[in-house]
Amino acid sequence: MPPHTAGRRHKPSGRPKANIKSLKRKRDVDDHEKLEKAVQELDIKSEIKDFSDLPLSQITASGLEASHFKTLTDIQSKAIPLALKGRDILGAAKTGSGKTLAFLVPVLERLYRARWTEFDGLGALIISPTRELAIQIFEVLRKIGRYHTFSAALVIGGGDLKQQQERLGRMNILVCTPGRMLQHMDQTAAFEVGNLQVLVLDEADRIMDMGFQSSVDAIIEHLPKGRQTMLFSATQTKKVSDLARLNLQDPEYVAVHEAALSATPSTLQQHYVVVPLSKKLNTLFGFIRANVKSKIIVFFSSAKQVRFTYETFRHLQPGIPLLHLHGRQKLSARLDVTSKFSASRNSCIFATDVVARGLDFPAVDWVIQLDCPEDADTYIHRVGRTARAEKPGKAVLILDPSEEDGMIKRLEHKKVTIQKINIRKGKEKEIGDQLQKMCFQDPELKYLGKKAFESYAKSLWLQKDKEVFNIDKYDLEGFHTSMGLPGTPKIKFRKGDDTKKLKNTPRGLDDDSDEPKKPEVRTKYDRMFERRNQDVLSSHYAKTIADDRTEIQSQHADADEDDDFLSVKRIVPVDELSSSDQEDGEFTRSATKVVTGIGKDPLVIDSKRREKLLMSKKQLLKYKEKGVKLVYDDDGVAHQVYELEGEEAFEKQGPAAAQRAKFVQEETERVREADIDDRQLAKQKKREKKEKKRAREAAEIGLVDEAVPTLVDTGNEEDPLALLASLPLLEDAEDDRPAKRPKKWFEDDSGDEGTRRKGRIIEAEVEPETLEDLEALAAGLLN
User: Fold this and answer.
1) Longest dimension (CA), the chain
2) Coil/strand/helix, residue 268
3) CA-CA distance, 81 to 233, in Å (whole number)?
4) For 665-678, what is each residue's pLDDT tens digit?
5) 292 and 230, same structural domain?
6) Within 10 Å of residue 481's Cβ, how many Cβ atoms?
7) Residue 326: which domain range?
8) Which of 379, 603, 717, 740 lies most in the core, judged by the most C-beta atoms within 10 Å?
9) Distances in whole angstroms, Cα of residue 572 to Cα of each of 158, 280, 569
10) Please, where are the H alpha helices in 223-296?
């Protein structure tokens, strides 16, 4: 025994490990009991300023310290103590006040005190209205929960559904959007929510809105009632119906900004400017040119406006990197744009309200609201993207003259202090002519502009607050022109708009008025924009049309230059033309036209809509005669496509039993005839094979140099006399032609006996038969 172990008692190696595990388990139990006791003794009315003053587990405290979270915000100091005690919470605080930590810390502590493992299933569910906000919550959860052993997952739309289904059953914490979560609850068999402990709704007022109402109701039905529920938002919902749907139990309402002078951060400078609708794009472009070293967010009311403004301003090159973000983009593109804007120092992003809630972009200098928000709550969420965490920020609201009074009144009611400013002269940049030129040169851009205008007009029409948004007070024609689009806009859903009525009016009825018409003034821009196919969103189609037009013009050089090969010439019946019109060379337009040659029946054109049919090959297919479809069988014979016979036609041919017997008899006869043909063909092939074999054998022995005679088909099966009759006689063969001697290897093509080499002829005395003879002959040739 070694000296250092002398006198010691040897113990089994397993006992110390067992003792260590039991001691660790006992220590964990003691820590949980102490933590549970500290939470019960926590005074919710006391002022807590640091996370170290809260009864938190050492694991959570280490995660907060590693993430550099030390001091509590107002909403955190009031909401976290209540949440640790298991109360239901309605939390409302200003944007950028730290609401995310106010519910993530209680979630981790609730599961830790319950000793939650992966075998216990789902313990906490956090629902967010947008994908970007869900990703941001998940990243914060990963930071502060880095030392916990809980499994967490991000479940949002756009991700791999099968991959999410495989991992969903093992997750303890889920951060999700309503639509995808409901899909998993209905389709994923291994997903169980019966043990859920905590439910969190971030931006609860938006989730409880009409857009997510049905999804949230369906999710609540799957969840157990004995859970803890927490709702957080900058503008919290207080509807009794919403709270009843969530099954809240004595909720605590925590609001930290109701007693404040403003619902927005004090470090935020808020202004508004009144600009006519036709000058909005000029004002925006001038503002961006004046702040190229800033970080700017511009809010629009629709995704199509975002796309059009981004494409046009990108061509105008304002001198700052431009980005765009809206809900119609794919998830990968949205994440890429979000990361680029977060990492940039100076850039401008055009976005919809998908960015307005919860997202934390660092160091945003300006928030520009080009389109008026639908209500004061939306305004608060939009401007909350800047001046976060008590940092400075600026916001500008651009209002139409018809929106000023109603919107300012609603902002004052929400305790939003905003000041009116004026734009300096010379700061606006006139870009209408440039937009008009771009829309004419690029049909795709013109198409985007039309869709953007329609979406903006529709958003105004659908607004609930008609006191602020009265579509009749907007200068939509001026806005349409400022976007570089030609013509007068037609809004189908607007009251008093007779577009549909005029469109369906027959062509002969629009000239019945007796009032003299003023001559229409047409400019070159009108003629330019009246060209066909300008609104087709396809460069390939435009190129094809251009190539076809060039080919037609080359074939018909004498045709009128103003005629369009796609347009249908006006057809006027001769009997409707007056003699005076014919003498003057002028034709009057008739109410109806008849076009023949397209189908069996003549096509009557009595309106502009039916006249456009002649310009579409696809539409004309309905009036053309339909051919008969043919298919080819294995023998190359064409026949019509077999179709099932109707029951009535089948019964007219007779009883089913008689038809069956007739069909069997016909098929039997056909098979018998086919069998005979197959037998004769097999015999013929066998005979030809034998003849080829005999000819090959005869050629090998060199007896006969001519073709082997073939059998004469006399109709009898293998008639031996026919073979003898087909053989030639020996005398006849000698008379016809002499027998040819096979050429030897030393003879050339001349046919002379001997070998010609370099002008000399050497005759062989004896035909070589043995190897010695061949050697002697070769020696003579060499000499």
Assistant:
1) 140
2) strand
3) 18
4) 999 998 999 889 89
5) no
6) 18
7) 268-430
8) 379
9) 58, 49, 10
10) 240-245, 280-290
